Amino acid sequence: MRLVGPQDGCLRHKIKDIPPEGLAVGGPLPPSLLEAAFAGLNVDLAATVGSYDVTLHHSGDDVLATGRLRATLGLQCDRCLKAARIEADAPINLLYLPPDADEKADDEDEEAVDYAEHDNHSVDLEGILRELLILSVPMTVRCREDCRGLCPTCGQDRNEIDCGHGEVRVAASGLASALEAIVTQKNPKDTLKS
Ligand SMILES: [Zn+2]
Ligand SMILES: [Zn+2]
User: Fold this and answer.
1) Please, which residues have CB less than 5 A from ligand 1, an ion?
2) Where are the strands (E) in the chain, listed by range?
3) Residue 150 Cα to ligand 2 middle (Å)
4) What spacing in Å lies between the alpha carbon of 167 and ligand 2's midpoint?
5) What is the pTM for the complete model shown?
6) Which pLDDT tens digits describe the chain residue by residue (194 residues)?
């Protein structure tokens, strides 16, 4: 396995360097890639790390890249606004075609494979890695499955403090079920009468 350093441009690999048995590339995701992927998003880059493992196979004019992207994203919980760590694990299945190839249209049915273009000299993994990073940010972020969030009444973190406001709702629903019980108790008599 050839490890790639964190310098810029390291995600580009020369096609002529890919041996017939394939070339394994991988390593930590460069900070510049994380910055580019998450620009404008609410992501804590200091708490975000990741790595990738890809095998490149050269066949004809095409280069197939298969592997995985793994990352831990530093995000913010939508409910309690505290730090949330989201694990991302995405498969990579990308076919690089020569510039202006019309193969793309023929293979459109193969949904499992993404397509990119190489420049006849090298393939660049930056695009696919950046795309997978962006896609790994969930629509709703939870620090944990059962996060209780902030109290809508007093704003305290209900994971940490039982401010008591939650019980108001319990009492109200208790009253509702009590009323319901009275109604259902009343009904049997009515049915007996008729
Ligand atoms: Zn939370
Ligand atoms: Zn409260």
Assistant:
1) 77, 79-80, 143, 147
2) 2-3, 12-14, 23-28, 49-59, 62-76, 83-97, 114-117, 122-124
3) 8
4) 9
5) 0.74
6) 444 444 445 899 999 999 999 999 999 999 999 999 999 999 999 999 999 999 999 999 999 999 999 999 999 999 999 999 999 999 999 999 999 876 555 555 556 789 999 999 999 999 999 999 999 999 999 999 999 999 999 999 999 999 998 654 444 555 566 656 656 555 544 444 44
